[in-house]
Request: fold
Amino acid sequence: MSFAIHKQVHPPTGVDHAVAAYFTHPIGDGGPPNLVVTQANHLTIFAIRREGPGPGPRGGGGDDAALIAAAVAAVQSPAGGSRAGGGSHEVSLEVVAEFDLHGTVGSVAVLRRRFGAPRNQRDALLIAVRESKLSVVEFDPATLTLVNSSLHSWETSVGSGGIPSAQRVAPLPPLAAADPEGRC
Reply:
């Protein structure tokens, strides 16, 4: 009998995917979206914080992309802070949660709340894993954990038309995509 052993010697350092989503708080609470970053098998959720004078928190204006870009620049700058919008406010990133995933992330998409849905709903993440799995996860604010709301696998036994379990890792990473209505 043989066993496979996996030991992660060094944590992942390079960012593979980054998306903006209202993942830990609903859009109705106001404020900018979260920055969700994946690094190999690691998922990190950042909150974007603004300090200083300027308009209060907003919920989903066109300025969110500029705010996220300023927050990323703040992390990359040696001083650890960035002035966005002509010095009107300081933007920084704060780690909200970190999770280790079981598999290497191939792609990530955001499942936005549907049109007409209550504004207190949060976005979900569609995570495609290289080991022939697709998962929809949501953030549970009560326990501060990920909740798997849907899990799909396209591996089957040999001879039944799917991907055999011995060849589970696809040669190319799967592509997760969602339309504006929140469908996969």
Observations:
- The first strand starts at residue 17 and ends at 21.
- Residues 64-76 form the longest helix (13 residues).
- Residues 17-167 form one domain.
